[in-house]
Design a protein that fits this description.
Layout lengths: L9 E7 L3 E8 L3 E9 L5 H16 L6 E8 L1 H7 L6 E6 L11 H5 L4 E4 L15 H13 L2 E6 L7 H14 L3 E3 L9 H32 L5 E4 L5 E3 H6 L7 H14 L4 E6 L4 E7 L2 E2 L7 E2 L2 E2 L8 E3 L5 E6 L6 E8 L1 E2 H8 L1 H11 L11 E4 L12 H9 L5 E2 H4 L3 H12 L3 E5 L2 H7 L8 H12 L13 H27 L4 H6 L1 H8 L15 E4 L3 H12 L3 E2 L7 H5 L5 E13 L2 E6 L2 E5 L2 H23 L5 E13 L2 E15 L6
Parallel strand pairs: 1-4, 4-9, 5-6, 5-7, 7-8, 11-23, 19-22, 23-24
Antiparallel strand pairs: 1-2, 2-3, 9-10, 11-12, 12-13, 12-16, 14-15, 17-18, 20-21, 20-22, 25-26, 25-29, 26-27, 28-29
Length: 671
Amino acid sequence: MADFTTEHAIFLGIDTGGTYTDAVLWSEQRGVIAKAKALTTRHDLSVGISGAVERIVAEASVQPADIRLVSMSTTLATNALVEGQGGRIALVMIGFSETDLEKADLGTALGSDPVVFIPGGHNVYGRAQPFDTSALSEALPQLKQEVTGFAVCAYFAVRNPEHEIAVRDLVRRETGLPVTCSHELSAKLNGPRRALTTVLNARLIAMIDRLVAATEGFLDRSGIHAPLMVVRGDGALVSAAFARHRPIETILSGPAASLVGARHMTGLDNAIVSDIGGTTTDVAVLDKGRPRLDPNGATVGGFRTMVEAVAMRTFGLGGDSEVSLDDNAMLPGIKLGPRRLVPLSLLAANHGAIVIDYLARQTKTANAGRLDGRFALLTGVPARMASGLSKHEAELYGRITTEPQPLDRLLSSISQATTVNRLVARGLVHLSGFTPSDACHVLGLQNNWNVEAARYGAILYARRKDGAGRPLCDTPEEVSHRTYDALIRRSSEVVLETVFAEDGLEGPETVASPLVQRALSGARGIAGARLDIDRPLIGLGASAPVYYPAVGEMLGTKCIVPVDTDVANALGAVVGQVRVSVEAHISQPAEGLFRVMAGEVVKDFQVEEESISFAETTLKYQVGQLALEAGTDEAQISIARDVSTATVEDQRKFIEAVLVATASGRPRIAH
C-alpha cells in the first residue's frame, strides 16, 4: 500500500461494474469510513455513481473539500470485450496484406467492421517504404458516416511511427472522429496482434469516455475538486485523461483493483483470489504479496492483447449470466454465460408491474415458448453509436424502447432473434431473462430485487422441454437449485483452471479430466479422488457470501470472504501508485551504425555508447512527461538495459539493445 496520505486526507474510491457501482471513503488513519452500492445505470453512468457517492458522503458527514483524491476502477471495458460489444470502427492497415487478417484472431475481432489497406510502413531498421494515402482519402467520406472511430496500424510502426502519425492527422482532419495508433499502445513487435489491440482500444474509447465524463461531471457538481485517477490492468493508477486515450489499458482494471483490495483486507501474501461480479468471474493467484503480470499480454474475451496486466483469467460467469440448456443430451444440463442478461428480478424492480403482468400472462399459456421470460430494451447509449446498422437492424432497433418489451411480441420470426443478438453485441440493446441472481431470489438467498418476477421466471424456465419432450423441472425451486448448483460447480472449475494453468498444465483440459470431475462431484468408487490446494481462497464481490463458502468446500480449501468484500475493487482503487514505462530499441542496420528508435525519435550514431547514452536521456524525458500525464509530480525513474552481443572470431559484435524506462510515484492530490 502506498504511503501518500496526509493526516486528515480522505480518499474516494469508485468501482463501476456491469451491475453495481460501488463507492468507499477511506483514510490511512481510519480505514474504511463508509461504503455504499448503487445500480450501474448504463444509459447515464453518472446516475449510478452519484447514487453511491452521495450516500456515503451523507453517511460519513464528509465535506467535499475533505476529499483529496478520487480513484476509479471499472469492469466496463472487460465486460464489453467478453460480451463482444463496442462501437463500430474502421481499421487502417499500412503496409500489410489481407492475409494478415488471418493472424492473431484479427479478422475474428474485426468482424464486419471495415478495413482499408494502403501502401507504406517501415522495415525493421525504421526505413520508410513507399507510402500512399489516396485510397484512404477516397474512403473517408463514406466511413465518416458509418463508424465511431478509427484504428491505425503500420508495418514496424514501433520502429518508426511516422506513417501512423500521418494517417492519424489525415483522419482527424477529415472526419473529426477518435483515432488510435498502434505505436501509442505497445512497443512490441507482431503487427497483427498490435492491430488487434488497437481495434479493441478504438471500440472502447466511447464507452470509457462516457464513464470519465460522467464521473467528472458528478464530481464538479458535488464540489469535489480532486484529481480523478483510473486503475489500469496492471494495478497502477493513471489520470483520467490518460485512460481516455488508452481505454484498452483499463481491461482487467476492476480485477487488478480487487487484488490490491484483497491483499489490503486480508494481509495474506499467498492466496487464490476469485472476484465474482454480475458479468464475469476473475481469478488470479497472489504470490508473495504480489500478483504476477502476464508478460504475453492480457487475454480477455478470447483475444490475446498486448496490454500488460495482471495474470488474471476472466470467465463469462457471474450472478447475471444467461441461463441456457445444453440440448445435446436427453437430460439437458444447465449452461451459464458468457453473456450477461438483466435479471428479471432487477427488471421488475426498475420497471414495476408491467414486467410482472407480461410474465404472468406467459405462465398461463398451454405450451412453453422459446421466447418466454425474455425482454428487450434500449441501453440508452448516444444515437451516434448506432451508426452503420443494416436495414433490418435499423428497423428492429427503431421499434425497441427504453421500456421492456417481451420478445414473443417484439419478434415475428426466428431471423429477428439473430438481428436482436447483433444489436446486443453492439451495446445498443439489453436482453433480460432468467439468471442465477433470480434463482437466488427464489431460494431466499437474495432479496434485494423483485422476488415475484424471479419466481415467474423460474416457472417459465422449468417448463422448457428436454430431448424427450418432458419439462426440464417440476417446480421453480428445483430449477433454481440446479442453476445455483451449476454456478457453484462452474465457479470451482474456473478456480481450478487458473491454478492448473499457473502450475504449467492445460487448465481446461485438466479440469475436464474424469479424475478431476470425480473429485469435484464427491463421487466414489473403489478409488476416490480429492483436491488439495496449498493456499486459501479469497472470495470477492457482492454475491461472494452467497456462493463462495460452497465453492471453498467443493475445492477442499479454506475460503475467506472479507467483511468489505462487496467493495474490494473500490477500496483497491485508492491504495495504488502511478507507474508508466517506455521502451527504446537500438539496432545496427550497417557495420558501425547504431540506430536509436524511441517512439517518434529516430537517430543514428557512429559509437555504441553514445547511442545508449542518447537513448537513456531520451527515455528519461519521455517517461517523465508520460508520468506527468499519468498523474504524478514525484516520479522516480529507473532504466533497465538489455544489450545483445555475439563473439565472432574473438571479436565482440553488437546485435541490438533494448532499454526500458519506468517511472513510478504517488498520485497528485488536492491540497
